[in-house]
Amino acid sequence: MHFFHVTGLQKAPLKDQLEEFEGLSFTYPLINNAKNVLFLALGENKASIIKKILIDKVQKLVSSHIKAKENLYFILDKKSAKFN
Fold first, then answer.
1. Confidence of residue 16 (pLDDT cuts 50, 70, 90)
2. Does the residue 48 lie in any domain?
3. Which pLDDT score is estimated for 80?
4. Into how many domains does the chain fold?
């Protein structure tokens, strides 16, 4: 099973070449074209932003514009799910 396909990147063992890794960015069209999208949030420092996304529906947040083709998942631990 492949979750995404990326072309033009060179595979390298992370242990030896981690400092050469520049990063990988996904655009809205790429993410929104995905069948399933998953957000993972851990820790109490994420609770306020999770509330803004899921409860308050704040549209100025980047994550508010992510729309999966079928399923949009949020996986939270107990601390990030505290919306008080």
1. low
2. yes
3. 94
4. 1
CB 53 within 8 A of CB 37: no
- How high does pLDDT run on average in the chain? 81
CA geometry: angle at 29 spanning 76 and 62, to 5°?
45
Question: In the 8-state DSSP scheme, what is residue 83?
Answer: -
**In a domain? residue 71:** yes
- Enclosing domain of residue 75: 34-84
Domain membership flag for residue 80: yes
- The two tokens of residue 60 are 């100025």
Average pLDDT over residues 55-77: 91
Q: Which residues of 40-59 are buried (b: 16+ CB within 10 A; e: fewer)?
A: ebeeeebbeebbbbbeeeee
Residues whose CB falls within 8 Å of the CB of residue 13, separated by 6 or more in sequence, listed in order: none
Choose between 76 and 23: higher pLDDT: 76
Whether 13 maps to a domain, the answer reads: no
